[in-house]
Amino acid sequence: MAQADYYKILGIEKSASADEIKKAFRTLAVKYHPDRNQGDKQAEEKFKEINEAYAVLSDPDKKQQYDTFGSSGFHQQYSQEDIFRGFDFGGTFRDMGMGGGEDIFSRLFGRGGRGGFRGGPRRGGDHEMEVSVSFRDAAHGAERLVAFRRSGVREELKIRIPAGVDNGSRIRVPGKGAQGEAGGEAGDLFLTITVLPDPVFSRDGGDLFVERSIPFSAACLGTPLEVPTLEGDKRIKVPAGIQPGTKIRLKGCGIKPLGSNARGDLFVKVSVHVPEALTSEQKKLVEELARKGL
Predict the structure, then answer these.
(1) Given the DSSP bridges, would you call strands 127-133 and 189-195 parallel, antiparallel or unpaired?
(2) Which pTM was predicted?
(3) C-alpha–C-alpha distance, residues 48 and 32, integer Å
């Protein structure tokens, strides 16, 4: 099955959710189960294909690799043993009310010395969870206490959120995934970071953006302006005649993205405030400016 299209095998779209993937697998697994198709070699091959497809698409890491590199690239990295490592074949069929899973698996895929699979220790599967952090903690780094369940037992772990993480960044915690089998090593825990919005800053890679409004007179004459940075307020000079929407760059006042040695910049977008109402004196002054061509 080196060039297999796992999505086509399960009859689903690439955008299918985890629940849709499981539902499609269960339907086909029941249909092509060896106990219902004894002596049917075509059904047996189909059953093997269905299980291999599900072993990949139900595992977030394997699925990501498959989606990224395609079938050919994926099979250059993963052997059949790698594909089924951490896949609970017996448990999957027990959940469906069908027994004999491990025996069927051994017979079809040759595990235990009958070809293809080695006996002995097997590595546990990896676990995934999401961790939300504030914008400032993502920029500076922070510690978090995360709770998760492993082998049915609740565990707590203090982790370090490295400075510069962004939405979608992943942190690997070795050995905190599922327990291995037959003395095999445990899998890993992968934390996917969600960065919460900030009321002041927005971010693009290493660059930060803030918005500041100044009066019309300040835009004409220029003005000093206090702007926020991650290290505190900084005083800058707004030049006379600045146009609305102009961005002033503060070099090196952004974020150093995770894995980068270069820190980004801070851009201050300047807007000109137009008052909704004027006092009588202000109105006279504006009318005078209008007569002067301003």
Answers:
(1) parallel
(2) 0.56
(3) 9
Domains of the chain and CATH, by start: 6-109 (1.10.287.110), 127-195 (2.60.260.20), 202-275 (2.60.260.20)
- What is the signed CA dihedral for 105, 106, 107, 108, rounded to 10 degrees? 50
73/217 Cα distance (integer angstroms)? 62
Q: Which two tokens stand for residue 153?
A: 């037992």
Residues with Cβ within 8 Å of 58's Cβ and at least 6 positions away in sequence, in order, are 18, 21, 22, 25, 87
pLDDT tens string 161-172: 999 999 999 898
In sequence order, which residues have a C-beta less than 8 Å from that of residue 175 and are 6 or more positions away? 185, 186, 187, 188
Span 53-107, pLDDT tens digits: 998 999 888 888 888 878 876 776 677 777 877 777 666 666 665 544 455 666 6
218, HSE (Cβ side, Cα atoms, 13 Å): 15
Task: Report the pLDDT value the prediction gives residue 50, as an integer from 0 to 100.
Answer: 92
Tokens 């291995």 found at: 180
Strand-strand pairing, 247-250 and 266-273: antiparallel
Cβ neighbours of residue 16 closer than 8 Å, sequence gap 6 or more: 7, 24
What pairs with residue 146 in β-bridges?
A: 157
